[in-house]
Sequence to fold (535 residues):
Amino acid sequence: MSDTISVTVKVWRQNGPDSPGGFETHPQQISIDASFLEMLDLLNEQLNDRGEEPIVFESDCREGICGTCGVMINGRAHGPQKATATCQLHMREFADGDEIVIEPFRAAGFPVIRDLAVDRSPLDHIIESGGYISVGSGAAPDANLTPVPKDAAEQAFDAAACIGCGACVAACPNSAAQLFTSAKVGHMALLPQGQPERWSRTEAMVDVMETYFGSCTNHGECHEACPKEISLDFIAYLNRDYVRAKVKNRALSGQR
Amino acid sequence: MAQSTRERYRVDPVRTRRRAWPFPLNIYQSAVGRKWVMALTGIGLVGFALIHMVGNLHVYEGPARMYEYAETLRTLGGGLVPKSFVLWLMRLGLTGMFALHLHAAITLKDMSRHSSDNAGLMSGAKKYAGGRDHIAATYASRTMRWTGPIIALYLLFHLADLTWGWWLGPDFIRGDPYHNVATSLSSLPVAILYVVANAALALHIFHGAWSIFQSLGVNNPRYNHLRRGLAAGIAGLILIGNLSFPILTQTGLISEDNRACPINDSDGLVCLAEEAEGH
Fold:
């Protein structure tokens, strides 16, 4: 037998990218064992039963690895629990009588599609600009043919843990995507396989990032919001690599 | 199918890239490069603030030693260069650093403002309709774009006060910094202004000095935990030193009651020079 709490859900409703939005309030009785998205699911069933439009929100794996879900909950990206995506947040994090304010991730680069769903494809455009490793490598190489130092492998894996949810952009007062981009640049810059195109990739990805997102002022909010706890150190490595890339790419292109 | 998917999920860039300037100016075209410039000029400006504060401690040695310090600054370079030449070089360098720091800050603020669909005009930081619960951002980091302009305005006042002498009028004696400081800071409103502005400066340096390491990518996990302490130390040192001047003038420690030399710009300065000679 689980405990039940009653909360007031204040949720952002917006019909489309260009329509004005506003908050809507719904009282909700919910088990503390329900996940946050299950709470929204149950709320949507009630709305359906009453013949109202259900709240649009995104979710896919619901186990914190796909990066699809993600909303601002009480002014925090992915809600109050540290290192947790919205889907893994449970109602036991809230108390009876709480008001829960739910808003979409906001940035000019993340236009609202509807209600809580935003278009995060600019993050994909950053990835696209990084290209792919185009060095001809023949058939699949033997495992362990390329030695990777253990520390480098572990650090690269820490960066690769990024699920691309966009919480860093949402939490950043400047709407900067520095943490996302630095994780994506960083996990390849640390490995030997990523070296041949390291400098062109770094420059291209930062340049595309800056056409969509703001400038990093080192608040550190992104790291706190990140469900995978990507370190701010990667931002430092990105900033260093970008200026080095400018110098190296110039040398590589033969301009002297 | 692939084509239509691509068309559908394409968000227009917030800004378009301009044609690249020649290397190395193209570094300044990017936000990351601009943060490098802000960090490098920041090192110079913090260094200046620290040296300026330490140099001003000569005021506690009396009018003659303060006169000697000011005269030393003007005669840097010895007889090799005209008088005040090195001083003017340093002033030009400082002005250049200020200009770059300001330009980068203002353009980066605008970039952030345009990257958010609900951002403050002044701070450029975005707001959520339901409020925002900051976790890591400090008061200092969130007020950088307020403390910055406060420092810039204060700097103009400070120059008008103790360099150009507009504020003191006939009471200002060029070449007698002890007298000018003691006279200016003995006014309570001016002393309060100095205290407020230096508190803003310390806040600005507290975030800025830490931020320098991130912006330049000076990062070593072994020493990273020292960065906050270093920033707090530098900001605290500058704050304590600079606050001591208005506060101790108000309490009467910096005063001209025991002054041996007359207060004027003719034989007063000669007397100060002789006294400085004798030490």
The radius of gyration of chain A is 21 Å.
